[in-house]
Specification:
alpha/beta
């Protein structure tokens, strides 16, 4: 899929004009993500700015493969130490490797082809410092029964808890998991929030 063409055409149903409600819920109840934070597939940067605003001392790096998305992200006024950068999550630049205290996931994992998911995990491992943390909002069921599902089933692609375990367990330990109490309209009950910590010993990225 050509993501930049989708942004140019305005075919971006994942762009809601605001940060993810489960992220706001986390920041309100659990506090800011301190340190350096990577947001892959950041789009227009709403999540990036929410994280940066919650922690003025943190550097939040939003990356996207779409130049059009990043151009839109830069139209917004700066709220903290947020930075936007063009990058392919499957070919992460050396400058973004082993650097981050946090990776925040929202709507990137569900958009890539399911066969690319292991490469996503490897990206997160490579981006994080030892014992860095991944805070993720995963879609368990992105489609209503009455939805007209695109041919091929997505994106977005749903994921099961068993698949998440199989993909992330070799590289991450699960610290916490919960169903968010807030969501964009239509996503209620379909998402799960997971906090994972990179396993320091024996990780192969």
């Amino acid at each position: 899929m050509n993501w930049d063409e989708r942004y140019q055409a305005g075919e971006t149903p994942w762009e809601k004009g605001a940060p993810a409600p489960p992220l706001i819920e986390w920041l309100r109840k659990r506090g800011a993500l301190e340190g350096e934070v990577l947001v892959p597939g950041c789009g227009h940067g709403h999540d990036v700015r929410a994280i940066a605003a919650a922690s003025p001392k943190s550097t939040v790096v939003g990356i996207d493969i779409s130049a059009t998305a990043l151009k839109e992200a830069l139209r917004y006024s700066s709220v903290g130490r947020e930075v936007f950068q063009s990058a392919d999550i499957f070919a992460l630049p050396q400058s973004l490797q082993c650097r981050f205290d946090w990776v925040f996931e929202h709507t990137c994992f569900c958009a890539i082809q399911p066969e690319q998911r292991l490469n996503y995990v490897k990206m997160a491992v490579s981006a994080l410092k030892p014992e860095g943390q991944l805070l993720a909002i995963f879609f368990l069921n992105p489609w209503d029964p009455e939805d007209e599902i695109p041919e091929g089933g997505g994106p977005p692609f749903g994921v099961t808890k068993a698949e998440l375990e199989n993909l992330f367990h070799p590289h991450f330990s699960l610290i916490e998991e919960f169903k968010p109490t807030t969501a964009f309209p239509g996503r209620e009950g379909r998402e799960i929030v997971r906090l994972l910590r990179k396993i320091r010993v024996g990780v192969s990225a």
